[in-house]
Design brief:
Blueprint lengths: L9 H12 L3 E7 L5 E8 L4 E8 L10 H20 L18 E2 L4 E7 L4 E2 L8 H16 L17 H8 L12 H10 L1 H18 L7 E3 L8 E4 L2 E4 L6 E3 L2 H8 L5 H12 L5 H24 L6 H14 L15
Antiparallel strand pairs: 1-2, 2-3, 3-5, 4-5, 6-8, 7-10, 8-9
């Protein structure tokens, strides 16, 4: 998130970390990155550095329908990351268990806190291409992750469902009158009015493919869900993959569509994945997961702007995302339009 939370103080973060992990925290430096969570770099009194995340349980619809369900889903996802790390996947940026073994603790009704080891390295940027060496490392990492499915316990399954779709479709049905939730509500509505037919074609296309694929569990693997540059940190030991709240069982294309959309050389990387994983990817499903990403972002940004809000860095970013997606420029995590886009 670009702006610090209005309802959570830094003292509350310090207290939660002290109670849960027994860590004394001095300086906290807010990092205006990501979406759906707030992040700080924390300097411990013992000189050790930590990465502290405060998750907003109101804006993670892929994890559940209410705050308690979202928190349960978050715990399951974070536990999977811990299990993967314990199984030898050293590239997994897993949370540190609290004193009672928990991977996250509830801060209040709406927020939870988790603590991670601070990873020293260079974080990626959205739209940043990767070279041949890092591309091959990324493919190998994803293939190894998919092969590690037996290492984790029960996890949620992800298909082609759009999180928050019901509310999004309600918004699409309410485009004929002005939205007055905040200063960017009606600009967002006007963008959707201009592109309503496109959005409806995307939704119906996902539905058709979902019916073709059915609900069989065959072919599902453990996926990260968002192996894009913002979740990659380049270290002297190699890549570290962070932000595991999206981990789920799904078709491998859920991770691979990003790699397939890298542009020049992506065909070789996809072939490399298929060789290493022994899995043949479906081109139509690769396209569909790119569409799913676009629609998920549209639904989340529409919800953010349709209702009460004040203008700021996060709302400006949401409107820019709506415009960019509907114009066909996003999602392009590695600087090229997704395969089939």
């Amino acid at each position: 998130m670009r702006s610090p939370p209005e309802r959570v103080s830094e003292d509350a973060i310090r207290d939660a970390v002290a109670r849960g992990w027994g860590l004394g925290i001095g300086a906290l430096r807010y990092l205006p990155v990501g979406g759906g969570a707030y992040h700080w770099v924390a300097d411990g009194h013992d000189g050790r550095r930590w990465f502290v995340t405060c998750d907003d349980l109101d804006i993670k619809p892929w994890l559940g329908a209410d705050r308690d369900a979202v928190f349960d889903g978050l715990l399951a996802a974070y536990r999977a990351a811990v299990e993967l790390r314990a199984a030898g996947l050293t590239f997994v940026g897993a949370p540190v268990r609290a004193g009672d073994g928990a991977v996250a603790v509830r801060l209040d009704e709406r927020h939870s806190v988790a603590v991670f080891d601070y990873v020293h390295g260079e974080p990626g940027e959205w739209g940043q291409p990767v070279g041949d060496r890092l591309g091959r490392e990324l493919v190998g990492m994803v293939a190894r992750l998919h092969a590690s499915t037996p290492a984790v316990g029960e996890l949620a399954r992800r298909g082609l469902e759009v999180p928050g779709r019901e509310g999004f479709e309600e918004a699409l049905e309410d485009l004929d009158r002005g939205w007055d939730g905040g200063p960017l509500s009606d600009p967002a509505r006007r963008e959707l009015v201009r592109h309503r037919g496109l959005v409806e074609r995307w939704l119906s296309g996902l539905d058709r493919l979902a019916r073709r694929l059915g609900e069989a569990d065959a072919g599902l693997v453990l996926t990260h869900g968002e192996p894009h540059p913002l979740n990659l940190i380049r270290t002297t030991a190699g890549l570290t993959l962070v932000d595991w709240d999206t981990v789920a069982l799904a078709r491998p294309e859920r991770d691979l569509w990003m790699i397939a959309g890298m542009g020049d050389g992506s065909g070789l990387l996809v072939a490399l994945y298929q060789e290493q994983a022994g899995i043949t990817l479906d081109p139509e499903v690769l396209v569909a997961y790119g569409r799913l990403w676009a629609l998920t972002d549209l639904a989340a940004c529409t919800r953010q702007l349709r209702y009460g809000h004040q203008r700021g860095a996060d709302t400006d970013r949401a409107l820019a995302a709506i415009r960019s997606i509907l114009a066909g420029r996003e999602p392009a995590p590695y600087g090229a339009r997704p395969v089939g886009g």
